[in-house]
Amino acid sequence: MQHIYFFGYGSLVNRATHAHTPAHRARLHGWHRAWRAVPERALCYLTAVRDPDASIDGLIAPVPGESWAELDQREAAYDRHDATHTLDHSSDAHQVVVYAIDPARHRAPGADNPILLSYLDVVVAGYLSEYGPAGPARFFDTTLGWEAPILDDRAAPLYSRARPLTDEIRTLTDTGLEAMGSRIITAAD
Known about the structure:
Blueprint: E1 4-8, E2 24-36, E3 45-63, H1 68-74, E4 79-82, E5 87-89, E6 96-100, E7 115-116, H2 117-131, H3 134-141, E8 143-144, E9 150-151, H4 167-180, E10 184-185
Parallel strand pairs: 1-6, 2-8, 7-9, 9-10
Antiparallel strand pairs: 1-3, 2-3, 2-5, 4-6
């Protein structure tokens, strides 16, 4: 039986946040990754935005039919878009979708829409695991919206899929944020 695959470009790159296997590295063409704000949330979301001149690395994995409800719930702010013919990968996937927020629903982030540091650590860990040390650097370089403040929730992670933090992940995330000129805030700010 052939399953439809998803293309993950954020936390779904971290295999520890889902049980979909087998997973394969992939590159999506015609999209870039961006932090965006949506009306119903006070935090930023990571989304894919159509851009004919861009490409982003990520991970694809199959989703058995009965598992779509769970994945759709996890990605509730997003719509599914066909990505089958815009991917480079080495799997036998015949159909692939990418989750992206409807452009009419999102806007550039502002001071009131921070990025959770616990979420970002999970993403960086996924890119390190899949792509080595160059993975997190490419993630930072190919993602827009770093003007959003970064909410430091490491001591008490707000992200439900937060993973144990290693010194290597902490250093890679902090170095990437410094290179982006990001502003770190606390809940008290």
